[in-house]
Each structure stands twice: as structure tokens, then as C-alpha cells.
Amino acid sequence: MNNIDLEKLYTVTREEFGENVDAVLDKVKETSPILIRSEGEPDLLLFDYEQYMELFGFLYTEEQIAEIEAGCASCEGK
Question: What CATH fold (topology level) applies to the domain 7-47?
């Protein structure tokens, strides 16, 4: 993925994201990234974890990745 066409992305507003966090997190697993808009303007991109790490994993050390994954694993049981 070199270029992202924002107009083609699944889009939610910040309010919709806040009201439906679980549904949006489920959606990002099948449609990543999701564009989050604020006041009608593009604001944030929400990536599926695997896709995010594929694109940006080089920014983290192995220790940081292990810490992130341990934190995620501890949250899954809650």
C-alpha cells in the first residue's frame, strides 16, 4: 500500500466511533484502514494491528513489540 485513497475508505465520525467502539474495531478487521473524520475533515486512520505492524513495525524494537503484544493479550481476557 503506497497511496491511500481517502475517498474509498470506510469512514466514521469521531462521534460514531465513540458510540460504537466495538463495532468499529470489528469492522477494521475486515476493512483496514478506516478513516475517522472530525468536523467533516479527515482526522485519523485506524489500522488492523497486523496491517499496522506490517507497514510500521520497523519503528519499534523487538522488546517494544513484545510489550505491546503482552498488553494486548492481557486485555483480550477482560
Answer: YefM-like fold (3.40.1620)
Assess contact for 42 and 35: CB atoms under 8 A.
yes
Model confidence over 2-57: pLDDT tens digits? 688 989 999 999 999 999 999 999 999 999 999 999 999 999 999 999 999 999 99
* Structural contact between residues 31 and 38, judged by C-beta atoms closer than 8 angstroms: no
Per DSSP, which regions of the chain are E strands? 11-13, 34-38, 41-46
Task: Check: CB of residue 63 under 8 Å from CB of residue 51.
Answer: no
What pTM was estimated for this model as a whole? 0.81
Count of beta carbons in the 10 Å neighbourhood of residue 44: 13
- Are the beta carbons of 44 and 36 closer than 8 angstroms? yes
Question: What are the extents of the domains in the chain?
Answer: 7-47, 49-78
What amino acid is encoded at 12 in this protein? Answer: V
